[in-house]
Amino acid sequence: MATASDARRWAPGALRGIGDSLYTPFCGADGDDIDWDAYRTLVRYCVGDLGHPMLWCTSGLAEFWALTLDERKRLLEIAIEEGRRVNPDVVVQACTAAMTAKDCLELTLHAQQAGADIAYIQTPMMEAHGGEGVLRFFCYIAARTDIALGMFNSPSSGYVLTAAEAARIYDEVPAVCATKEGAFRPESSRRLHELAPGLVLWECDRTVYRAGWLRAGIVCPAQLGTTGYLFETPERRLFSEYWDLVWADKLLEAMDYGRESGLDQFDLDLGGWFTCYPGRSDYFTHWGGAFKYAASVLGLPIGDYPHSRPPQAMLPPEAKTQIEGAYRRLGLVD
User: Given this model, what pLDDT does residue 17 score?
Assistant: First the structure.
């Protein structure tokens, strides 16, 4: 675990490679329970079978907004326990966003005590008074904890920090050392790097990596929280091989690999089901049911209740058909 005072020395060397954002497998009537065995299997698969060096826990894909505080704590504890049993050096990233600063503090203190390496706070989802309010939220947490902190700038919050607002948080909160820029605004990420060059930055728009931003030092050689385990299998390490080329600065080879392996086409074939609900097409979502259906196509356990918890909708049949078809075209399933 990186303490607050060590965070900025620790982050550049530690945050490297693929970091898997884990879903929550539900079971029981209406998904009111969690299939803990399935979750343990998922952790072991990501860290052991795929060899991915980082985990991203209890964030949007995990449906944190539908989990109790106790469930979120237990999910993190199991990720640490199972992940470090397979790889003692696995970096465990805990997402501790919550509707109240006090709940966020409780989760962040738990992450610190449980042995997570860093805690990320997503921009508050309600009543955020711009960057000033988000800064106040971060200051409240940082004053009461001693763990490395990261920002998660996602449009699912309803408010996205500007580059200047994020840089101010970095300047005023020494524990903040990293950010996941999830709003697909490369120009803002570039500006943020100019304002806060020491901030470890992951840009969700993957095209910037092909544009040489890693070589330029704008972005880091890591995926802080993505679903790499849904883009490859132990037998066909498509995703890892692609990113190994990018991180080795073999950009032409990476572009050729993306095209020839089918990964580029796979993105198109999947469509927008992971992050877009058609009934609210202007809103960026993390549709848990879509991610879990993709996992089930690959044979991963998702619990006997395959849906998201409310208020998310159930995944429609046409989404399942499109997702399964994409995997068959890529060749990851027969």
Answer: 97
Parallel, antiparallel or unpaired: strands 26-27 and 33-34: antiparallel
- Note the pLDDT tens digit of each residue in 228-262: 999 999 999 999 999 999 999 999 999 999 999 99
Half-sphere exposure of residue 86: CA atoms within 13 angstroms, side-chain side: 24
Please tell me the pTM assigned to this model.
0.96
What torsion, rounded to 10 degrees, do the Cα atoms 245, 249, 253, 258 define? 60
Six token digits for residue 139:
């200051």
Q: Counting beta carbons within 10 angstroms of the beta carbon of residue 70, is it exposed (0 to 12), middle (13 to 18) or buried (19 or more)?
A: exposed
What is the reported pLDDT for 1? 77
For position 334, what pLDDT does the model report? Answer: 84
Contact 126, 64 (CB under 8 A): no
Residues of the chain with pLDDT under 70: none
DSSP 192-261: HHHH-TTSEEEES-THHHHTTTTTTTSS-SEEEEE-GGGS--SS--HHHHHHHHHHTT-HHHHHHHHHHH
Burial of 326 (0-12, 13-18, 19+ CB in 10 A): buried
Q: List the one residue out of 206, 227, 216, 236 whose CA is nearest residue 293.
A: 227
CA distance 238 to 334: 16
State how far Cα 301 lies from the chain centre.
19
Cβ 191 vs Cβ 161: under 8 Å: no
CA distances (Å), origin 50, targets 71, 156, 163, 251: 26, 29, 34, 23
Count Cβ atoms below 10 Å from residue 299 Cβ, excluding itself.
10
Handedness of CA 320, 182, 285, 308 (dihedral sign): positive
pLDDT for 131 equals 96
CA separation for the pair 24, 62 (Å, rounded): 5
Token pair 């690999």 is found at 257
Q: In the chain, what are the domains?
A: 6-237 (3.20.20.70)
Single-letter residue type at 4: A
Q: Which residues are CB-neighbours of 57 under 8 A, at least 6 positions away? A: 22, 75, 76, 79, 92, 93, 94, 95, 116
